[in-house]
Amino acid sequence: MDFKFTDAPETKVVKSNGHKPPIKENPLLEFLEMEVPDALLLDGHDNALLGYAQRFGMDPVACYDYHKVIENLINTFDEDISKEDKHEMALEWFQFNIIGAWVGEKTPCFLVRPE
Q1: By the 8 A CB rule, do 53 and 60 touch?
Q2: pTM higher than the cut 0.70
């Protein structure tokens, strides 16, 4: 799977292990494009997009639902892998390849809410 962070005019791509999360249309994409046109987006996780986050003195960044991203990652693994192993693998993938993929000050943030 490629995690593509779109940053006009060039695109940064972080290669992964070949799994692709399901892509679903999210009406927030159009909203984000109007409000924060230079936001970096996490490819393949449109269904986890919540909007954007702002902090004093910093540019706004795209904000994703942490649990939904983990769920998307879990769904990319083979059926014959146990649920616990899928969850562990998804967490490891997220920590190393998503949170660990710092691409500058516009790197997306992830909202963690109680389940």
Answers
A1: yes
A2: yes
